[in-house]
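Problem statement: downstream parser choked on a complex file, so we are re-checking the raw output for the pyridoxal-5'-phosphate run. The parser issue turned out to be on our end (a line-ending mismatch), but while we're here, posting the original submission so the record is complete.
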Amino acid sequence: MSRFPAGQKPSTRAAQALGWIDPETGALVPPVHPAVQYERTAEGEPPGGRVYTRDQNPTYEQAEALLASLEVGQAAMLFSSGMAAATTVFDTLDVGDHVVAPEQMYWMLRRWLQDQAARERIALDLVPNGDMAALRAALRPGATKIVWAETPANPGGAVTDLAAAAAAAHEAGARLVVDNTLPTPVLCRPLEHGADLVMHSATKQLNGHSDVLAGALVTAREDDLWKRCRRERAFRGAVLGPFESWLLLRGMRTVCLRVGASARNAQRIAEALDGHPAVSAVLYPGLPGHPGHDVAARQMEGGFGAVVSLRMQGGADAARRVVRALRLFHNATSLGGVESLAEPRGQVEGPGSPVPDDLVRLSVGIEDAGDLVADLEQALDAVG
Ligand code: PLP
C-alpha cells in the first residue's frame, strides 16, 4: 500500500498519508470503500483477509497505518469514538482486575471507571496526577493490570512522568496505557517513553475540524493484549465508518501544521494572561512556573498543546461571565478544532468532578494569536 521510504519526518509522512497511491487509477487521494462484504475467491478464501466490514475495511487501514507510523507503534485500530477505544481496553480485563487511574482525566471515562468499580467489574484506585509515590503505593503487584495516564490532563494540564509511570507499572506486572489526545503524536509519543498502548479521541486534534467523532488505539507490540482489543472491537462493531475514516485521514494530513500552530497560540495566550488581575491562575505546562513544566519539557517537543485553563479570581460567576463575554472563542464543549472554544469546565462536569467551578477551559485554535489575546483581554476586562 505504501511506497514511502523509511526515515522521513512525521510532517512528510502525514502530508502524503504515507505516500499511498491507488494502484488501479494512480489517484493520490484514496477512495472510500463503503462495501459491507468482500467476495471470496474461487478457492473460498477472503480476498486480502477481509470478510466483513465490522472490523475489516481498506479505508480504516490507511488511517490506521498513518497513525501507527506517527505514534511509532506497530499497529493502530480505529474506533467509533474515543470512549469506545478506551472502554475496549478495559473490557479485556477479567472481573476483579485492578486499575490505577489519575484523579484528573477525561471526566466521562473517570465516571465510567467508577461505575465499573461500583458494579464490582474492576477494582479501581484513583491517584493524584503525577504523584509517583501515590501511584507506586496504589499498585498491587500481580493484580494491577492497567495503569492509565493522561498527560497533560484535561482540563487542568497536570503532567505525569511517562517513563517513571511505565517503569512502576511494568515492575508490578501491569501495562501503561496513555490517553494521548491532548498532545497528539506531534508533541509527545508515549510509546517512546515505555507506554504499552496509546489511546486517542481522534475527534480532537488528529482530525482537527470538529466534524468527525472517532477514537483510536495504537500498540507498541502486537501482543496478547492487542489481540484481545482487536477481538473486542470485532465483537462490538465499535469501528469507525468508512466515510469518517476517510475524513480522519484527510484531517491527519495537516495535523503537524495545526498542532504546531495552536500550541504556539496557546503558549502566547498563557504568557499574556499569566498575572492578569481577573485570573488567579493560568494552568498551562508551557509556563515555567507550572509544577509539571520540567517533566513536560523533557517528554514533549514542539510545544505543550492547545488547552489552556484559567482559574477566575471572581469564582464560578466570573467563569460563566467571561465565557459569555468572549466574541471569537465560541462557548462550546470539546477541543482540538481549528476554531477556538471556551467553557466553564468545572461547572460543565458538575458535582463529583475534581475540576473547580471557577475554571475556564480554552481550546486554542489556529486563528491569529493577537486576535485571540485581544478577545480574551476584552472579556476579562469586562468581568473585572
Ligand atoms: N480523552 C480525552 C482527553 C477527551 O478530551 C475526550 C473527549 O473530550 C475523550 C477521551 C473521549 O473521546 P470521544 O468524545 O471521541 O469519545
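For whoever reads this later: The chain has two domains: 10-252, 255-383.
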